Amino acid sequence: xxxxxxxxxxxxxxxxxxxxxxxxxxxxxxxxxxxxxxxxxxxxxxxxxxxxxxxxxxxxxxxxxxxxxxxxxxxxxxxxxxxxxxxxxxxxxxxxxxxxxxxxxxxxxxxxxxxxxxxxxxxxxxxxxxxxxxxxxxxxxxxxxxxxxxxxxxxxxxxxxxxxxxxxxxxxxxxxxxxxxxxxxxxxxxxxxxxxxxxxxxxxxxxxxxxxxxxxxxxxxxxxxxxxxxxxxxxxxxxxxxxxxxxxxxxxxxxxxxxxxxxxxxxxxxxxxxxxxxxxxxxxxxxxxxxxxxxxxxxxxxxxxxxxxxxxxxxxxxxxxxxxxxxxxxxxxxxxxxxxxxxxxxxxxxxxxxxxxxxxxxxxxxxxxxxxxxxxxxxxxxxxxxxxxxxxxxxxxxxxxxxxxxxxxxxxxxxxxxxxxxxxxxxxxxxxxxxxxxxxxxxxxxxxxxxxxxxxxxxxxxxxxxxxxxxxxxxxxxxxxxxxxxxxxxxxxxxxxxxx
Length: 500
What we know:
Elements: H1 11-19, H2 28-35, E1 41-44, H3 53-59, E2 72-77, H4 81-93, E3 98-101, H5 107-118, E4 124-127, H6 135-141, E5 145-151, H7 171-177, E6 183-187, H8 192-201, E7 210-212, E8 220-226, H9 230-243, E9 248-252, H10 256-268, E10 274-276, H11 282-293, E11 299-302, E12 315-320, H12 327-334, E13 344-350, H13 352-365, H14 369-381, H15 383-399, H16 407-417, E14 421-423, E15 430-432, H17 438-443, H18 446-465, H19 471-478, H20 491-499
């Protein structure tokens, strides 16, 4: 019989003692109660609803020996290397013995942490799904029981999700090899098709084993601001930031070069802000993130990865300078505003020209099979040139002098994701280890993924152009939640009220 841990402790008191919170947010307690009863389920929670608590609290109840060694762990699988360190630090701040293992660590550090897991030093461990390719990782888990198998960003399981990752589709098999521990899937962005796919893959009952935390964000005012030139867009950005200098805000960009151009414009207008994107030095990013979180600087210009897991409740404004890839991505990003439940605004600076940027991304992101195979062949047969000259050499061989064509980067990313490339200490950063197989191309059909992404972009475009229905109501319907009430304060609702 399953051990019913939730009946042995007062969860509300445990929350106050261990985390300092006075009460749970819905549906945190409902999810935690069920996972402590060894039930598996999918939790759908809106951005900012505190989903990390649903695995942090169970990790504080992991069994240990009399000398303090943990014989149970909570294992969290996440696709986001950038997020793991932040989540680990958050857990450590609650006195939880936590660590992460991913490709950002040296070989020696990975080995040390895996030895620590095997020795019972940790109760909470974060990893990417690709970590299960390594036999040494399986060995470190061999003597430890899994209290909970957490699949964060669970929509990555589905080919129809907005961020499909093939290694996620193998997680149920990994879970079974680990003795079929209770599974908690977590996501904020899953359409009806994606929810059905997740429940099927993890053998869940859709009616009984999904907890809906809802999508409702009534405090969010979503507004499309149509612009017809870069000058108009910059002026609109300047006005929004100038009018809201005393409140906190994030401006999202798709392209780093666009971010830098906007930054130069804002600097010329004496507007204060921070920057955050992948190519910046790690210490610079960490410093900027901390200044933003502590409120020392109110505004930050960033690419979409910024904000994932960032615990800042009082962001009042999120501005999209460029069009995101899908409604799922947009709602996740704009949802970082108003996590404290107070009024917040999302502004979408839309220009028809932006659509071409995303169309180019689609063409780059899903290269043909022959292209991927040729890139692998070059890496395998000319390792010294590739190691020293890297992407410039590959691009010269594959696409001649079109430096705006990023299919080579996409192909390398795909090959790395498939395990065909391993990281190494060279200017290029990868070496060939195994050629892609027909199974790889069957599992992750690039042409099919491209078509699905095109559909998502079309849905986003229809949302932008629909000025007859409340912005939030449209988004709720997209995720399968129909018959919702208009928000009353988006651009469409305000225009409707003005006409009346």
